[in-house]
Amino acid sequence: MDRQTLQVDGVQLALRVYESEGAPRASVVIGGAMGVRQAFYEPFARWLAQQGFRVTTFDYRGHGDSLQGPMRAVKADLFDWAQDYEAVITGAKAALPAQPLYLLGHSLGAQLPGLLRNPAQVDGLLSVAAGSGYWRDNAPKLKRMVPYFWWVLVPLATRLCGYFPGRALKKVGDLPAGVILQWRRWCLSPTYSVGAEGAAAAQSYGAVRFPVLALSMSDDELMTLRGTHNLVNLYTNTERRVERITPADVQARRIGHFGFFRDQFQQSLWPRAVEALAGLGRGPGAATVSGTTV
After folding, report:
1. Within a domain: residue 233?
2. Where is the Serine aminopeptidase S33 domain (predicted)?
């Protein structure tokens, strides 16, 4: 693993690059979930590199290893994070220009690709445990909590601290004020980012032509199947599929929102990711895994 930095509009991003031992068959950029540091994906990224992929992970500006100085001083929103994502994609493509480049987006990491300015660099998106963040699409237990979260806790804590102190509150993680407040607007809109940001965002999602395969976990404690479909359907002009995976499919007691990337699934779910990425590269209708199409 090689730790690197990337300058984006004067901001330094922290990257980790995992090279394959032989000639790589493709590049994979892992887009992380909200509040999740790139270190969380390291076991999976190392394993994926062993399967012949050049893998890049990163932390969005003002977060994780990319945080410089106090978080209350960070000026960033989700458009900036989409720009960071795109800069990492551009760098990965330049490092391996002759091979396909795939995105593996976990939660937020499958939402932001709809805001890329140059989606033609990407050959496919594998979405894991992602969906619309609209609060009525949240899983039932979470949905009971979110009115307090969005209407009381987030505005109050962010105003008092100058950022969202999620680690102390054991909610999501520490986030820059611009990120959490924009995310709040998205999550309060029935059509999520497109509803909150209007026609320009709708056109951006509509410009995507790379195929999207979404893996939905039946026991996801945050995201519902409806929410996954609502996210995937924002990508209006490309092939898109949703595959449902249950713990029983992989002889496990639980997968949940974060479990896919835990090394207990090295022999079960992780090979399915390789299968899915290969399918994205084979063209229309080929991207599928051993789950239930829904």
Report:
1. yes
2. 23-239
Q: Is 146 contained in some domain?
A: no
Per DSSP, 151 falls in state: I
CA 259 to chain centre: 14
For residue 92, the domain's CATH number is 3.40.50.1820
Does some domain include residue 286? no
Q: Which domain holds residue 32?
A: 2-135+199-281
Residue 28 has pLDDT above 80, yes or no: yes
Mean of the per-residue pLDDT values for the chain?
Answer: 94
pLDDT attached to residue 141: 87
Instruction: Give the total residue count for the chain.
Output: 294
Containing 146, the helix (H) or strand (E) segment is helix 140-148
Q: What is the pLDDT of residues 71-108, one digit of tens each?
A: 999 999 999 999 999 999 999 999 999 999 999 999 99
Whether residue 129 is contained in a domain is answered as yes
Phi, psi of 24, deg, nearest 5: -70, 145
How is residue 52 written in tokens? 């012949």
Side chain identity, residue 180: I
Give the C-alpha separation, 3 to 279, whole Å. 30
pLDDT of residue 285: 54
Q: Return d(Cα 112, Cα 237) in angstroms, integer.
A: 16
Q: Where are the beta strands (DSSP E) in 32-118?
A: 53-58, 101-106
Cβ atoms < 10 Å from Cβ of 254: 10
SS (H, E, C) 16-46: EEECCCCCCCEEEEEECCCCCCHHHHHHHHH
Q: Is residue 207 scored above 60 in pLDDT?
A: yes
The total of structural domains in the chain comes to 1
176-186: average pLDDT: 98
Q: Position of tokens 């990965």?
A: 92
